[in-house]
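As the next step, I selected for study one protein, both as residues and as discrete backbone shape codes, as given directly below:
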Amino acid sequence: MVNRLSLRTKLIASFLFVVVAGGGLSSLIGTRLVADAIVSQARNKVKHDLNTAWLIYNQSLDRIRDVVQLTAAGQTLPEHIESRQWKKLEEFLIKRCKDFGLDILTLTDARGKVLLRTHHPFHTGDEQGSDLLVQRALKGEPAASTVIVPREELEKERNDLAERAFTLFVPTPKAKEVPVDRESGGMMLKAACPVWDGNGRLVGVLYGGALLNRTYQIVDKVRDLLYGEGRYKGKEMGTATIFQGDFRISTNVLDEKGQRAIGTRVSEEVFQAVLEKGELWLDRAFVVHDWYLTGYQPIRDLTGKIVGILYVGMLEAPYVDLRNKVVYSFFGIGALSVVIVLLLYFFITSGIIRPLREMAAATAKIAEGDLSIEIASKSKDEIGQLAQSFNHMLVRLKQARQELEDYGRVLEEKVEERTQQLSKMQDHLIQSEKMASMGQLAASISHEVNNPLSGVLIYNQLIAKKISREDWDKEVILDYLSKMEYELFRSTKLIRSLLDFAVQTEPKIKEVNVNEVLNRALELGIHAGSKENTRVEKDLQSLPTFMEDPDQLEQVFMNLIMNALQAMPTGGKLTLRTFMENRELKIAVQDTGCGIPPENLSKIFTPFFSTKKEVKGVGLGLSVAYGIIQGLKGRIEVESKVGEGTTFTVCLPITQE
């Protein structure tokens, strides 16, 4: 199929393959590098955004610590504590709590027992000495941290804090399975500072905090600062979230109803990396129902225990669309470049192909015998050199044709002369062949006539022997005479058959019994070639009669039996079998003689081929038998092993009429 394409098509296809393969490979590498650069840039931005979120988160914690520390450092608290002015102390703390947006602000004594709560001023007397922040403040050191506050502690401080902290988990794709479905505790930014009197004596501890559950100032500030109010296809460009454990308590990620996805949980992959291993996660992650380029970092309490996660994420879709746009642009520019280059290449190849087409047309005319053409080429490149060589070839072809024409005339004269000589030789050979054919025909006729005459001679000798004895039997002599008459009649009929063969006469077909014909041929053959040590075994099955020429069959069987006897000069066993097989009548003649060499098996049916040196055969018996069986639409099969014997099997179809 490729060989049928034009040269221009092959050149363009080759060039196109190189351009497409090279351009495609370059485009793939380029787009991969660009895509990797986009993703790398996005990850770096996420990392930077996560650092910014931590800055805002820590600023909120520092602000609470500063408020608590400044409140505890003033003279108001020690004075009111010493004077037992609890009402004024309550009003002062409530105002500070409201002015600075704290959820709790509580005062304990120097042993950690609660003296006053801003929202439950009469709910006092409980011990807070087990709180780590309070413990550190009792030692004179201010402390601030993220803490998990149990529900009962929240209820002591404010009634609504426990309700804000209570969260039912929302089933989330890719989240880790957990045995519980809710959380009652809350996560709080909390600070504690010691309270000193004018003599530097510790008189109490002040602690305050802001509950993060369902408080959105921090996450919204992170989103507004980093991503503004931009949206992409109706979705937030960026989001921020504070996790308590693995579930969202403060977020601007929206669920399918457009509400903040409080109670949704982080994916199992992030859970294992951040909460279990304490690692920083910077990768794409599935957030509620969209893919984001995200950053997750664990939030730890005062002891370093992981209590939550701070998250920022950018919607992945804009970056994916940007990457796809770059990829499509690369391939679009590549495809346009290929088309432009192919058009240019098409016009460039026209100047190369035109002289080649002229040479192709010239060769077609040369093939038709026209050598008068000449190709004009002005270029000096390889194609111009090819055109000059082509013209030089035409000149040589003209000279060669003239030489061939001259040589052809001389050759015709020599051929005519040689033909006359061959004609004379052929006439001589035909005459010699005729003489040889007449000799072969005479030998063949004498061989075929000799068989019945030999039978007559044998019976004549038998009669002479009988008559010479005094106990001769008249009936036996008459039987011999009858058989002699039959053989003479067969000789006469054989000669008539030869005459009939010359004029293409048909065989005399009549109903015959094959076993009878075989027995008659055996009797004649035994008398003609009997050996003292030869024994005959017969296995003749009962067969139906057939429409055949009995004389021709007897001639075939006689030849096969005589050949078998002559193959056993020192005696042996002759076996005759008749049977039906595969809708064929089969007659087998088997001897235990010398066998036929493999190189002679293909020649035994050839006329005048013979290996009988002692009996001086002329090689026509098997040839005649083969011809007779072929005329009856049958075949002769031969099996022979040197030193073991030979089996000839005559196969006649039962449909033979």
Notes: The chain has two domains: 1-342, 506-653. The two ends are 58 Å apart (CA to CA). The first helix runs from residue 7 to 73. The longest strand covers residues 186-196.
